[in-house]
Amino acid sequence: MKGDPLHPRAAELLTERALRPLDDKEHWELQQLGVDDDDSFDRAAAAVVVATTVMEPMPSTLMDKILAKAPGAGTLDWKRTLPGVSMPTPADQARDTLVGVELSELEKLKDQPVTEPLIAQKEVAPTKLMGVPSAALDTLPPPLVKRPPAIPAPSLVEPTDKPKSEEPKVRFSKDSSAPAISRTPTPATPMPSTRTPVSGVAVDVPRTPVPPADVPVVGRAPTPMQPITPLAPVLATPKIAAPDVIRMPLPQDSQPFSVETPPHAVPISRERSGPVPVLPPDVVTMPSRDELAQRRAAERQQAKTMPLAPQRRSVLPWLAAAACLAVAGGAVWWASAQKADPPTAPVVATTPATERAALLANATDVTKITWTITQDPTSHGATGDVVWSPSAQRGYMRFVGLVPNDPSQFQYQLWIFDKTRDQAYPVDGGVFDVASNGEVVVAINPKLHVNDLGMFAVTVEKPGGVVVSKRERIVVTATRS
Amino acid sequence: MVIEGRPLAVPTLLARVAAGDPAAVREVLSRYANLVWSIARRFEPSDAEDAVQEIFLDLWKSAGRYDAERGSEVTFIAMIARRRLIDRRRTRRRRPEDSSQVADVVLEELAADGTSPAATADAAKAAHALDQLRPEQRQVLVLSTCHGLSHGEIAQQTGMPLGTVKAHARRGLMSIRAALLGVQGEES
User: Fold this and answer.
1) Does the structure show a pLDDT above 50 at B167?
2) Could A43 and B17 be called an inter-chain contact, meaning their C-beta atoms sit closer than 8 Å?
3) Over the stretch A93-108, which tens digit does the pLDDT of each residue have?
4) Are residues B125 and B119 in contact, defined by beta-carbon separation less than 8 angstroms?
């Protein structure tokens, strides 16, 4: 075993946290000690709970309620995503199409003339094309599925040979060093605009609602597929709508083809620092200089009226020292008085038997119940009874003929069943030993108040007793009628 | 071609819950519903239904934090349950009409049919460590951890001085933790 390097104060605080909620100061102290995330004490407490819990079946109606509120029932969305972005279900998620594709097959395709499309004639998402060699892209046919015409939008890059009303598309072209992926935004969802050319990639999202198709087109690329980087002056013009253009350079490009943007896709800017939204004037109000001056004056005034802590601190040690001296003096005086005046009254030795007799003689509410033996070999031929006083919360067990026990092997343990409590959880009456076959009287010392006595039971347990008895060996019982 | 590498980790049941697997949710309920219900019954016999629902809501949200290397699943779930129940008890204590709840808390448990779930490694170690404690230490620790009694309430119920109760609870829990971690704990 190795030693535990935990700081003593940290151990103390973590223990307390496992047993009760900490206050703010204690939380702060834990953080300062750097052990705030140590949950070993919580797990220890939980393990104790698990080890000592008697299982009860949960009501089925409650199970139904929990299931109704569980994830997957539609009432609780516990997934955390980007704000406003709904995650597709696993079945809808686009998968990497290269999984399962042998690279050797792709290498072969590069060398031989392709007569058949590499990818089946169906719609593919843009993400499925990532990593596919350009030679393979050359073979891609246009999609066969007829799509509805997209909403026309202006474009800063206006290919000379392309109509304006072209649908959302990804374009790859051989005759350009900087091909473009153009995506027409949905007019109903205007987004804040960010526009940053990053390594030849320009991601444009409209700052203002997309204008109708008849808005004059501004901006023109020098060559059809070359990105335009000086866009800031254009955006500075308030009436001009910025189109949604994504340009990606590809080493080799094939004939153009189009794919449809998923309807739930959200344009994401690569620019980290977006434009700061301007709040209305009534949202943020800064105090004036006069107000600030008044506040400071009030705080200074308040500080002047506060009591000075150092004065109190300087007196406390002296008071504590005086108290200690007084206590020490009193102790010395008491000790000397004890020596000078020895007790004259004789000490009467009491035994459980005499105490039992006294209880029977004096208490008016004593209940006396005879033991009922069981099949356990320790109780064969045993007799006796138990007396109990509810008002005194005391009682005594008397046994005759109970088998003596070796405390190193096993001990007897008493359990008290209280009618006002759950019968699965009897009160521990403590462990005891039997030294001889003769009469043995044992005092009962319940750990909790017994409100309404139901039954006594004695079990055989391991030395020291147990928290949870398996009730494997019940010796005697005494049931109150 | 054989690619050598680390084997893929099988996601734990709670990891599947965190990933949104409805089947995992049902499996968690089938495995641990009775345990959570039993724990809640000990803390709050009169309001266990509400407590259990809150516990499972917490569990669905916290499932992603479970680390199999730090403890068993059942211990993690019991830990979530305890925290929620302690929070509820603290809130309840602020309401004076509920102060009588303390008197209803019992001390020891007697397993009726041997169904105490000490089957997991953590629980078995904890049970063994509990048996090593002195009876009064064990008594205080069970009252504190399993029934959520405060130190003051335990002192009132058992007649022990408050300082003794604190010492018993602290040393007892440190002994259990040491047994779980395999480190040398404080002398009990």
Assistant:
1) yes
2) no
3) 444 444 444 455 555 5
4) no
